[in-house]
Amino acid sequence: MLEQLVKKVDVDLTKLLRERTVGTIHMKVVHTVLLSLLVMAAGCNSDASPQTTVAETFASRLQQTGQAWRSVEMTKAGDLTLQLVSVTQTDGILNIGVGTISGTQCVLVESLDTTANSTAVAPQLTRTLTVGTYCVRVGDDSRNLTGTADFQVRIERPF
Q1: Counting Cβ atoms within 10 Å, is residue 18 exposed (0-12), middle (13-18) or buried (19+)?
Q2: DSSP 43
Q3: How far is CA 147 from CA 61, 65, 66, 89, 143, in A?
Q4: Is this prediction's pTM over 0.90?
Q5: 53-158 CATH pick, 3.50.50.60, 2.60.120.380, 3.40.50.1400, 2.30.40.10
Q6: Read out DSSP for 113-149?
Q7: Contact between 53 and 156 (Cβ < 8 Å)
Q8: Any idea where the domains of the chain sit in the sequence?
C-alpha cells in the first residue's frame, strides 16, 4: 500500500513540476524533499509502540548444591532479562536460567553460570518469550558454594 502511495505521489508530483517552469535542479530538490517527507510520515503511523517493562527481585537462600525457583507471568510477549545482583559468598558462581514449569520442577530452556554483578548495564541473560507462565531458577550447579548463601536476581519483563 505504501508503495502504491509513493508511486502515485511520484507521478502526480512529476506532472505538477513539468507543468510549471521550474529548473531541473529545483525539480529534483523539491521532488526529493517531498518524497522524504512522505516516507517519514508513513513511518510515524506504525503500530510499534515502546514497550514498558517491570523489574522485580527474586531473593532467596541456597544450600550447597541447592536450587531455588519462582514462577514469572509473561502478560506480553518480549524479552525476559536476568541479572544476578548479589551473592553473600564473594566468589560464588551460580547458575541462573529461565524455563518452563513441569509439576514441581523448573525445566530450564536457557541458563548460564555467572558471578554477581550489581553494576552491569546489560543483563547477564536475555530470552525472548511469548505470553505464558515461565520459571526463573538459581542453582549451585557447579558446586561452588562452601555453605549457605543468600542471592538476589533482578528480573525484567514487558508489562
Answers
A1: exposed
A2: H
A3: 10, 9, 10, 8, 10
A4: no
A5: 2.60.120.380
A6: EEE--TT-SS-SEEEEE-SEEEEEEEE-TT---SS-E
A7: yes
A8: 2-44, 53-158
Return the C-alpha cell found at 78. Answer: 518480549
Q: Which amino acid is at 109?
A: V
pLDDT tens for each residue of 47-103: 555 679 999 999 999 999 999 999 999 999 999 999 999 999 988 899 999 999 999
For 36-60, how does the pLDDT look when each residue is reduced to its tens digit (9 = 90+)? 444 444 444 445 556 799 999 999 9
> Is the sign of the CA dihedral 122, 125, 129, 134 positive or negative?
negative
